[in-house]
TrEMBL record, chains A, B:
The keyword Metal-binding applies. CDD domains: HMA. One of its GO terms (molecular function) is copper ion binding. Gene3D superfamilies: 3.30.70.100. It holds the Pfam family HMA. Keywords: Metal-binding. This is Copper chaperone. The keyword RNA-binding does not apply. It comes from Chengkuizengella marina.
Length: 66, 66
């Protein structure tokens, strides 16, 4: 399992936390959002998905991965 | 139908808009949220519900009606 922390802009409330964590879960990624830090720790299986696809899933929800 | 605009604190994103509008709809109230102004216009039937119950429904979602 690979572990990476992304900087994500635009998350403002617990609904955003849920939206991102649920979306990641759907693609088999464990996401831990830190709303105050504006970060998302993603834990994923590299043989299953790559970081680019994870970033896209987050951006599709309306947030910016910086 | 009665029409009133409430000042609501804590709304930060479109998820919040949806949460409030859906909750109001469930109790038979039409709600128009203005995210920038931090206001919620409520349109309701006084014979059906009173303003106090509407405020409670909004506060139960985690927002402050001020
Ligand atoms: Cu949000
Ligand atoms: Cu929100």
């Amino acid at each position: 399992m690979k572990n990476q922390t992304l900087k994500v802009e635009g998350m403002s409330c617990n609904h955003c936390v849920n939206a991102i964590e649920s979306t990641l879960k759907e693609i088999g990624v464990k996401g831990n959002v830190d709303l105050n830090k504006g970060s998302v720790e993603v834990i994923y299986d590299e043989s299953n998905i790559n970081l680019e696809a994870i970033k896209e899933a987050i951006e599709d929800q309306g947030y910016d991965v910086v």
